[in-house]
Amino acid sequence: MKGLKDIPSIESAFKGQNYVLDRELATIVFLMCQLERPLLVEGPAGVGKTELAQALADAVQTPLIRLQCYEGLDVNTAVYEWNYQKQLLAIKIQEQSGKTEEEKERHIFSKDFLLERPLLQSITQVEQSPVLLIDEIDRSDEEFEAFLLELLSVFQITIPELGTIKAKHKPLVILTSNRTRELSDALKRRCLYYWLGYPSAEKELAIIQERLPQVGEELSQQVVQFVQSLREMHLNKTPGVAETLDWAISLFTIGKNHLDKQAIRDTLGCLLKSTDDIDKVLGSELFNSELTA
Question: SS3 sequence, the chain?
């Protein structure tokens, strides 16, 4: 991939997009680009899996094509479907054309009537390789996961009426999973793999400083320390980096430059998303520690 010739160039390119990645992640992204292999990134919600794809697309100045997965996702939504209204109109117009039925059918099942969805869009880009994000693949059905195998193996899609369409430029594919279910071995074999977990305190502080430089040093450090301690508690929904950033900017917005109990009470809903978790934290030793004095 042009501009990403080595691991330091990956690190530099992502830093330019305000995305903090360590050496291991930079290495696996470099290998994904050089080997043209899909990358499966698993980890808890809110740690930057989706943002990784966006940062890569921005770094190499290529389109990001996103497929959001969900239960019941089918080929029509993910790959293509026919524009039935346009086809019906064309049939009516052709009724007086004198064309044979075979000619009429060939016409209405041409590319002019094809609606490209994300997967097909990703292999028909003319100018350059796009980044294809298949987001939360674990939420899709196993049948759809199996359908992806042809695309991830040879980067081609078969449309019965048109034949096989091969990629002009292979997309850079990133699949994300929150690991709500185990993915198949067949899918994993086709991918490089990286586990993106909760960051260390040092990395999380670096993320705040990179993304929210306006938040002061003292507040940033206290936010990170508090969130890191929260992750050791048994909460219903452990906060990710996305929530850390939301909380930090919220505290800054109300004029805080350090943590105190009232500030935490007022803004905890930016960090935790369940009343049980909020009550648990407000009644914990952490809330009454020196950190919030």
Answer: CCCCCCHHHHHHHHHCCCCCCCHHHHHHHHHHHHHCCCEEEECCCCCCHHHHHHHHHHHCCCCEEEEECCCCCCHHHHCEEECHHHHHHHHHHHCCCCCCHHHHHHHHCCHHHEEECHHHHHHCCCCCCCEEEEECHHHCCHHHHHHHHHHHHHCEEEECCCEEEECCCCCEEEEEECCCCCCCHHHHHCCEEEECCCCCHHHHHHHHHHHCCCCCHHHHHHHHHHHHHHCCCCCCCCCCHHHHHHHHHHHHHCCCCCCCHHHHHHHHHHCCCCHHHHHHHHCCCCCCCHHHC
